[in-house]
Amino acid sequence: MRIPILKLYNCLLVSIQWELDDQTALQFQEDLLQKIHETGANGVVIDLTSIDFIDSFIAKVLGDVIDMSNLMGAKVVITGIQPAVAITLIELGIGLTNVLTAIDLEKGLEKLQQELGE
Amino acid sequence: MRIPILKLYNCLLVSIQWELDDQTALQFQEDLLQKIHETGANGVVIDLTSIDFIDSFIAKVLGDVIDMSNLMGAKVVITGIQPAVAITLIELGIGLTNVLTAIDLEKGLEKLQQELGE
């Protein structure tokens, strides 16, 4: 099973709508980086609105994929982090410090366009 | 397994990136209608760019979900129909006659916004 990645103009959109198992998370990491490479997208929005639980492995993969995307030249915005997920991330020491966040997908896209200066 | 449905402003975006089995297709039908009801979306873009094969059952479900969405008041645009899929649809007698189509997700969204008069 793979997570669909949508290309919209210069951005990629990903909505994670179920708990990821470890294999799917790693596959997602690979797919996203590949898609950034293929499309030359310079922004990524990852929407977690439907996720109400995150474990330490997934949190680490998420942190990694953000750093990797940045390395490849794509800015990442995480949207829709729920209270329980925010609590877990901070308790795990994963502050996602260099990451843009927004309350929902629309706001995330706006923030990204602002950052990209468009 | 479910197909993620993204809400963007007044539209829903769905990207189908792998061959659907019958159960997933029916689940998608149910999820999409439920999401239209929940969000009050008045447009839906279904992107088939990554699909290079469609069987008669999936084609029927797709045709049905378009009619059902229309009944509920949401316009549907299908994007990225590949040659082989177009051939199958026509050969099956599923012309998707009352459906808007576009070459890719961006053009589909533009067409939808035009149709919705925005």
Fold blueprint:
The structure is a homodimer of 118-residue chains.
Chain A: E1 6-8, E2 11-15, H1 22-39, E3 43-47, H2 56-71, E4 75-79, H3 83-91, E5 100-102, H4 105-115
Parallel strand pairs in A: 2-3, 3-4, 4-5
Antiparallel strand pairs in A: 1-2
Helix pairs in contact in A: 1-2
Protein name (chains A, B): RsbT antagonist protein RsbS
Pfam family, one (chains A, B): STAS
Domain STAS (chains A, B): 1-112
Structural summary, described in words:
Two copies of one chain form a homodimer. Chain A has 118 residues and is an alpha/beta fold. Helix content of chain A is 46%, strand content 18%. Chain A contains four helices and five strands. In chain A, strands 1-2-3-4-5 form a five-stranded mixed beta sheet, sandwiched between helices. Chain A starts with 5 loop residues before the first strand and ends with a helix. The mean pLDDT of chain A is 91. Chain A binds chain B through residues 1-9, 13, 15-18, 47, 105-106, 109, and chain B through 1-9, 13, 15-18, 47, 105-106, 109. Chains A, B: This is RsbT antagonist protein RsbS. Chains A, B: Pfam families: STAS. Chains A, B: InterPro entries: Bact_StressResp_Reg, STAS_dom, STAS_dom_sf. Chains A, B: Residues 1-112 form the STAS domain.
Global Rg of chain A: 13 Å
Tally of individual helices of chain A: 4
CATH architecture name of chain A: 2-Layer Sandwich
Enumerate the spans of chain A where pLDDT stays under 50 for 5 or more consecutive residues: none
> What level of helicity do the residues of chain A show?
40-55%
Question: Strand percentage of chain A, roughly?
Answer: 15-25%
- Per CATH, the superfamily of chain A is STAS domain
Got a strand count of chain A? Answer: 5
Secondary structure category of chain A: alpha/beta
Largest beta sheet: strand ordering of chain A = 1-2-3-4-5
Say what the CATH topology of chain A is: Transcription Regulator spoIIAA
Oligomer: homodimer
Order of helices and strands of chain A: EEHEHEHEH
Distance between the termini of chain A: 35 Å
Taken together, the total number of domains of chain A comes to 1
Q: Major beta sheet of chain A, specifics?
A: 5 strands, mixed
Molecular shape of chain A = globular
**Largest interface chains and counts:** A-B, 18 and 18 residues
